[in-house]
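An example makes the point: we let one protein speak, the chain in one-letter code, the fold tokenised, and here it is:
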Amino acid sequence: MWPRLRRTVIRFNLALTLHGGALEIVLTIIEALIGITLIASGLEGYLLGIGRIGVIVRLILFVAGSLLAYTDRITALSGFFLALAVIVVLSIGKFGSGCVSVQRDK
């Protein structure tokens, strides 16, 4: 039973255990770090460089981080581009339309 369960439930990239080529190991570690950051942002409601985020954005970032955690490259890329699109939209909304007011000392 255990070998069958192991094949179906536990799926991870061997590059996380430093088995594989150097480029694959580096890319996998970067994916893991980005995924952990996105999942943490989704759980905490705060995105570094953006600030507090709403519930819908938190859910999207959590899903994007979870997609990055999956071992398939296509799924990881879709999670990366989903997160990138959300972050770009949030950045444009925060900095692009002049909605940030700066108060100067008198």
Notes: Residues 6 and 40 are 27 Å apart (CA to CA). DSSP finds four helices and two strands in the chain.
